[in-house]
Amino acid sequence: MKLNISSSYKRGRSFLLIAGLAIGMNSTIIPQSSQRLTGDLWIAGAVTLNNTPATSGVAVFNNSQIKTARNSSATVNLGKLGRIKLEPEVEMSLQFSNGLIGGTQKSGLMAVSANQGVRTKVSTPHVLVESDGAQLGLFSIEVKSECTCVMVNRGKATLTVGQKITQLAQGQALSFDLNGPEKVGHCEGLKASGLGKPLAIAGAVTAATLIPLTRDSISAVRGTAITSATTSQATNQSVIPPTTNATNNPTTPVKPPPAFQVCGCSFDKDGKALAPAQASTICHVGGNGNKETQAVACAALTAHLNLNGTPRAGHSQDSCGACQ
User: Fold this and answer.
1) How many domains does the chain have?
2) Which pLDDT value is given to residue 84?
3) 229/296 same-domain check
4) Residue 78 or 277, more confident
């Protein structure tokens, strides 16, 4: 019997080619895992995170739901991205990613500060607040039932309502309802809170400088000068639907969070090691997957781990204690 080796070979090659394509397609479709961005939450009073009572230092993730009670406040620390300060009776959905900080603000008074190179995007029932990240930004946003008031304390912002776009420069403020920008008089609440003048800080300024964890960032911005801004027309802009009503509440000073521990190291409210030279044992996992037990000074611990105990970028598998 004569075998047709050529046809068998061709059929085998076809099968291997189809199988290889299938494997390649599957590897393309399945997303590659990436490290999840995290922040940490510092509170004064009663604050809930995803409808659960929160404590200072707890980790927050993208799409976290944060709500502050009466006479309570919270500060969201997002590291290199920036910080967000929530005053009493604020409800918001936190949204952040590489190069972006913000969220959906439903009620209350909030301040968001983004480091240079980080865009800001905050949606309220009445207006969309955005910045391009070209410079350090600090924006105060107050959501009431009838309108939203926006003030630019540092940098500049673009505000969109329907087809109307308004540019606000540093020191300017306007209120917005669903019809567009309104007179500056509606921002008297922010003016009374001392948010009318941009911060004047000498030396290097970061989001952490503008919104520290140790004091009330809202009352720290002093002054009264606010001006109006001009409005231009734009096309293809969507109207942001109204959501929850809000009330106007006075600001409340924030008490410093207590000292806390990470891997046996004690840190103060500013994230400074109380015993910098003290050694902490960690398990460091290299890029090749090899584990190595290391003794790290408390002052250098944050090179491996965040202050909420989660691993930093580039150290995604590091953990407290000796390697097992």
Assistant:
1) 2
2) 94
3) no
4) 78
